[in-house]
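Duplicate of #3305? Posting structure anyway:
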C-alpha cells in the first residue's frame, strides 16, 4: 500500500504536513460536501454558505448550521483522526491543516491545527462582534439575534470570504517548508486550500494523496493511495512503529 520511497522520505523528515477535507470525517458519519450523500446535494453552496445567503435568509442558513452542529455533537472522531494524533507524536515538526469546521481533530487530540475554514461550534455578532461560542446556546437559538440587535453568524469562512487572518499565511508557510505533505479526504476543488499540495510539491516536498478515489489533484501527486483514511492512516502508523520509528530528536540523541 505504501512505497519504499515514502518511508525513505519519512525516515529523514523533519516536518510533516497533513491537509484534511471532509473525507476524513466521513467514517465518523459526517456527510461530505460533494459526495453522493453530500451536504450540497440538498442545497447548493451559493444558497447557504455565503454571506449574501445569510443576510437574505438568516433563519434558513442558521437552521442548516444547527442541523450540522447537532449532527457533529452526536458523532466522534474515527481511527483516521486518532492516527493523525499518533503521527503528530512521531515527528518533531507536524502541522495539521484542516478545511473541516467539525472540530473532530481537536476532539481526537491533535495540537498543532490550522482551521482554514473556521469552526462550526463558534459564532459571533456581525454588528458588535460579541462572541457566542457556546454551541448549546447556538443550538437553542432559532433566530440568530444578538442583544444589540445584530445578526449572529457561524464563525466559518463562506465562499467569497477571506480566510481567518494568519491561517492562510501559516498554512502556506508550512506547505512551503515541509518534507512530506499528505492530502487526505479532500476533493481539491476549493481554493486557496487546494493549492497547498502544489505549493508543497513546488518546494520539494514528497506529496501523498489518500482518498477513496482519484481527484483533481491526483495527477501531480508523488503517490496516490486509494483507500479509506480510517483504514489507511492507522496502517501507516502501524508500519512506522514496526520500523521502530522514533522521534528524529531521539535518533539524533543516540547518534
Ligand atoms: C477566498 C466552510 C480570497 C463553510 C467552506 C482561487 C483562489 C482563491 C479563491 C478561489 C479560487 N477559485 C475560486 C475561488 C473562490 C472559492 C472557491 O474555491 N470556489 C470553488 C467552489 C471553486 N473560494 C473561496 O471563496 C474562499 N475564499 O478565496 O478568499 C482568498 C484568495 C487567496 C488567498 C486567500 C483568500 C473560501 C472558501 C471556503 C468556503 N467554505 N466551508 C461550511 O462548511 O459551511 S468550503 C467546504 O468545502 C468545506 O470547508 C470543505 O472542507 C471544503 C472542501 O471540500 P472537501 O473537504 O474537499 O469535501 P468534498 O465533499 O468536496 O470532498 C470529500 C473528499 O473526500 C472526496 O474527494 C471523497 O472522495 C473523499 N472521501 C470520502 N470518504 C472518504 C474520503 N477520503 C478518504 N476516506 C474516506 N472515508
Ligand atoms: Zn451584537
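Output from current build:
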Amino acid at each position: 500500500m505504501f512505497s519504499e520511497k515514502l518511508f525513505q522520505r519519512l525516515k529523514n523528515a523533519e516536518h510533516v504536513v497533513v491537509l484534511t477535507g471532509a473525507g476524513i470525517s466521513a467514517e465518523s458519519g459526517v456527510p461530505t460536501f460533494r459526495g453522493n450523500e453530500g451536504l450540497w446535494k440538498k442545497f447548493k453552496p451559493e444558497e447557504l454558505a455565503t454571506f449574501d445567503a445569510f443576510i437574505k435568509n438568516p433563519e434558513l442558513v442558521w437552521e442548516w448550521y444547527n442541523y450540522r452542529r447537532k449532527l457533529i455533537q452526536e458523532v466522534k472522531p474515527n481511527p483516521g483522526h486518532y492516527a493523525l494524533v499518533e503521527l503528530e507524536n512521531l515527528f518533531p515538526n507536524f502541522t495539521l491543516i484542516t478545511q473541516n469546521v467539525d472540530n473532530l481533530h481537536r476532539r481526537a487530540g491533535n495540537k498543532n491545527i490550522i482551521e482554514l475554514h473556521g469552526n462550526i461550534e463558534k459564532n459571533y455578532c456581525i454588528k458588535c462582534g460579541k462572541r457566542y461560542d457556546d454551541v448549546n446556546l447556538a443550538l437553542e437559538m432559532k433566530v440568530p439575534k444578538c442583544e444589540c440587535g445584530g445578526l449572529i453568524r457561524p464563525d466559518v469562512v463562506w465562499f467569497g470570504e477571506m480566510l481567518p487572518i494568519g491561517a492562510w499565511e501559516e498554512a502556506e508557510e508550512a506547505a512551503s517548508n515541509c518534507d512530506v505533505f499528505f492530502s487526505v479526504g479532500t476533493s481539491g476543488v476549493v481554493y486557496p486550500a487546494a493549492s497547498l499540495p502544489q505549493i508543497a510539491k513546488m518546494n520539494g516536498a514528497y506529496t501523498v494523496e489518500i482518498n477513496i478515489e482519484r481527484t483533481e489533484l491526483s495527477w501531480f501527486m508523488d503517490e496516490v493511495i486509494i483507500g479509506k483514511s480510517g483504514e489507511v492512516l492507522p496502517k501507516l502508523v502501524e508500519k512506522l512503529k514496526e520500523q521502530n520509528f522514533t522521534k528524529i530528536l531521539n535518533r539524533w540523541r543516540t547518534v
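Confirmed duplicate; merging threads. The domain at 4-29+76-117+161-254 is CATH 3.40.50.1220 (Rossmann fold). The chain has two domains: 4-29+76-117+161-254, 38-73+134-156.
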